[in-house]
# Entry
Amino acid sequence: MELQNLTSFSEFLLLGLSDDLNLQPFIYGLFLFMYLVTMLGNLLIILAVSSDSHLHTPMYFFLSNLSLADIGFSTTTVPKMLVNIQAHSKSITYAGCLTQISFFILFGCLESLLLSVMAYDRLVAICHPLHYPVIMKPRICGLLVLVSFFISLLDSQMHCLMVSQLTFCKDAEIPHFFCDVPKLHDLACSDTSGSNIVMFFAGTISGFLPISGIVFSYYRIVSSILRVSSSSGRYKALSTCGSHLLVVFLFYGTGLRVYLSSAVSSSPRKDAVVSVMYTVVTPMLNPFIYSLRNKDIKSALWRIISRIV
# Structure
């Protein structure tokens, strides 16, 4: 087969979720609706946190940054898919593919690290309540977010650099609705061992370490809660973690489901459909989880709506 370097290519072809032309209007409408809900929900969370002085606390500061990561995560993949459906096209330039990979990993890793930081915030609040204002000072919170961003940026650039070194077969077709690194590895005609090593270490940074931090934090939290004598005290402590735990299970549960299914499934299109949960549905549901289970957020949103009305 004829081989070409990435830089000499002009485009990849994103095959999307289905080749059925009759399904395209339905897919377009569904994804447009989910994207608009994602944008509206996360922007409302950011607006509520920034406009209400009662929400100027570390927990809501991290939540607003998580909403920003969700917006970036969805914006990286969905608009390109909608444009391709509208234009009856499947193409994405190689520069556009590398850019999509870079931002997808950046925001995905950032969300993972922010969830770990939020778990640490709950650990300090429950296990060391008297020292909470000293430990979680605004400067420390800003530093944690900044470090998370730079680690995510490093992770994304490592992936992007390794993909740019791969050689692909002519007429490369990606059986997905966005440029996904594992799919590009499957298409590569050159040796991917170096890139696989980078993926392993990057996956450790963006996946294993945050999960380990979350598990350790909740181990300490549960141990502390079990020492509380009253059931009402236990419930109050657990209620502050409920929304975060639900988001953690949703984010990592769907993510693991995607990669486990891709390991055992022989259908690339089925893998793409499953990945919708991880890339589109989860960022859409996060604002609802935090707003519906949080009286402070609901009160802030009602005050904003009242001022507008």
